[in-house]
């Protein structure tokens, strides 16, 4: 018979759980306080409440793992915040059961875990800078925790502003490499010719302007994590060089023939569809497989609207800190605005909207996030007037002309800063680039 150790400080919950498990044919030992446990060695599974009276479940878990106990653990908790989930996953928690849960849910989970009985490695704790309680994000955080406990390459996929950068850092901060550097290289921001030198470093005189021997980002991240942001924008030619590095962790500085080695964990991110790019011959398939040992897909905000209220509160708090304002919260009507909005720029757009509203509100409660600013009634009236004045020949061109006007205006206003323009439009930098190309709008 499989035996289960149950740690739960609340008496009625403990008895109820014990009964359900015993009825299902497991043998159960239940304790109120982890101190009452002599040894966990004889159990097949530990069910642990995260919030115990005298000690945090996570601390207990950490201690357990440090002693080398690798018993499978299922955690039960009423408040599954991201940090708890990430830490729990790092301490080899197999699953998290949110209270209240029903009998079937519990039994199904226990059954599954006992069949798998596998654990991941042991790590330490994190800081709380990330928000999300939706089911979709809970899945993401679990993967982040697992990714942190391995040395595998991670690929973060998701629309602009969903939090890929943030999660890359969280993975590093939770990994055994956290004392070593976390180095970012943005493959779309650096001109093609410089990217290789930035990545691999160079020898003095390797090219005009190479005035001294210089370490690349790979070497700078020795022992730590290299974050390849916007990997979809890496030029094809460079992709094979990166692949070579990923395969055997060796590389050459530009202009040098001495092979160098680096101990680096790689995380990459993109908002582009790499599979499509592979089909179009723009991204190397072999590189894709190398990079995607663990794939974490971060869902757009509109697919996890439950996270919006917490994110709004979080950003109000942060904005108050940064601006010294004293905004207490948000009116229900304004929050409703946020709940109904499209959020094409995802969390980044939400953050910007909240920061702006905090600056305008200063104290008290935010009354509106002004989300319809750009699509409001005034604009409708103006557009209506334009359309009415169009000649028959002009109908066809109307959309592209409107788009052209807008893009030209933005290119001037932001001096050709495509990242910024993509951000205000809530589209990806690459969508913007292809629009600019299609309309042959030049750089300013
Ligand atoms: N779950 C979250 N909790 C708190 N802050 C978040 C969360 N997700 C994103 N943010 C914040 O939103 C902003 C945008 O996130 P980030 O830069 O990580 O997005 P991204 O996916 O890398 O976007 P892009 O594809 O445009 O580079 C950042 O300021 C980040 O800190
Ligand atoms: Mg990013």
What labels would you give this structure?
444 residues; alpha/beta; Rossmann fold; Helicase, Ruva Protein, domain 3; 4 domains; 5-stranded parallel β-sheet; 19 helices; 16 strands; 45% helix; 15% strand; binds adenosine-5'-triphosphate; binds magnesium ion
Description of the molecule:
The protein folds into 4 domains: 3-143, Rossmann fold; 150-297, Rossmann fold (3-Layer(aba) Sandwich), CATH 3.40.50; 301-371, Helicase, Ruva Protein, domain 3 (Orthogonal Bundle); 377-438, Arc Repressor Mutant, subunit A (Orthogonal Bundle). 45% of the residues lie in helices and 15% in strands. Helix 5 (135-148) packs across helix 6 and helix 18 packs across helix 19 (429-438). The protein has helices at residues 11-23, 57-66, 82-90, 103-116, 135-148, 164-173, 192-200, 217-220, 236-248, 274-279, 285-291, 308-323, 332-340, 346-361, 377-388, 392-395, 398-413, 418-425, 429-438; strands spanning 3-7, 27-31, 45-49, 73-77, 93-98, 154-157, 182-186, 201-202, 214-215, 225-229, 250-251, 260-261, 265-270, 294-297, 326-330, 363-366. It has a 5-stranded parallel β-sheet with strand order 2-1-3-4-5, with helices on both faces. It has a 5-stranded parallel β-sheet with strand order 7-10-13-6-14. The N and C termini lie far apart (73 Å). The protein is globular, with a radius of gyration of 26 Å. The model is unreliable at 118-127 (pLDDT under 50). The protein contains 19 helices and 16 strands. With 444 residues, it is α/β, with parallel strands linked by helices. The site of adenosine-5'-triphosphate has 16 residues, from helix 6 and helix 14.
């Amino acid at each position: 018979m499989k035996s289960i150790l149950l740690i739960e400080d609340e008496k009625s919950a403990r008895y109820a759980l014990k009964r359900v498990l015993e009825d299902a044919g497991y043998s159960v030992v239940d304790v109120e306080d982890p101190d009452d446990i002599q040894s966990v060695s004889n159990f097949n599974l530990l069910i642990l409440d995260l919030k115990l009276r005298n000690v945090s479940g996570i601390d207990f878990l950490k201690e357990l793992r440090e002693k080398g106990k690798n018993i499978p653990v299922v955690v039960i908790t009423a408040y599954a915040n991201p940090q708890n989930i990430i830490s729990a996953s790092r301490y080899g928690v197999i699953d998290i059961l949110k209270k209240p849960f029903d009998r079937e849910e519990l039994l199904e989970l226990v059954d599954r875990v006992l069949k798998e009985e596998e654990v991941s490695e042991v790590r330490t704790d994190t800081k709380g800078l990330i928000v999300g309680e939706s089911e979709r994000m809970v899945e993401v955080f679990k993967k982040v925790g697992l990714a942190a406990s391995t040395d595998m390459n991670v690929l973060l996929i998701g629309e602009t502003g969903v939090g890929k950068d943030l999660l890359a850092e969280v993975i590093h901060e939770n990994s055994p490499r956290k004392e070593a550097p976390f180095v970012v290289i943005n493959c779309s921001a650096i001109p093609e010719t410089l990217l290789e030198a930035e990545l691999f470093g160079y020898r003095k005189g390797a090219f005009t302007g190479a005035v001294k021997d210089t370490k690349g980002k790979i070497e700078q991240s020795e022992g730590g994590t290299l974050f390849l942001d916007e990997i979809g924008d890496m030029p094809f030619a460079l992709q094979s060089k990166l692949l070579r590095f990923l395969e055997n962790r060796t590389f050459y500085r530009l202009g040098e023939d001495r092979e160098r080695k680096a101990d680096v964990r790689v995380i990459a991110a993109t908002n582009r569809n790499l599979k499509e790019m592979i089909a179009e011959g723009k991204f190397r398939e072999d590189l894709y497989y190398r990079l995607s040992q663990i794939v974490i897909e971060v869902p757009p905000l509109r697919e996890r609207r439950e996270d919006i209220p917490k994110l709004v509160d979080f950003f109000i708090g942060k904005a108050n800190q940064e601006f010294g304002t004293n905004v207490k919260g948000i009116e229900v009507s304004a929050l409703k605005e946020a709940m109904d909005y499209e959020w094409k720029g995802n969390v980044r757009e939400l953050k910007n909207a909240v920061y702006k509203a905090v600056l305008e509100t200063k104290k008290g409660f935010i009354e509106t996030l002004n989300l319809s600013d750009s699509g409001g009634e005034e604009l409708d009236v103006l557009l209506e007037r334009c359309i009415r004045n169009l000649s028959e020949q002009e109908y066809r061109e109307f959309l592209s002309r409107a788009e052209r006007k807008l893009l030209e205006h933005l290119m001037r206003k932001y001096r050709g800063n495509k990242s910024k323009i993509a951000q205000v439009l809530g589209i990806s930098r690459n969508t913007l680039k292809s629009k600019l190309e299609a309309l042959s709008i030049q750089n300013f």
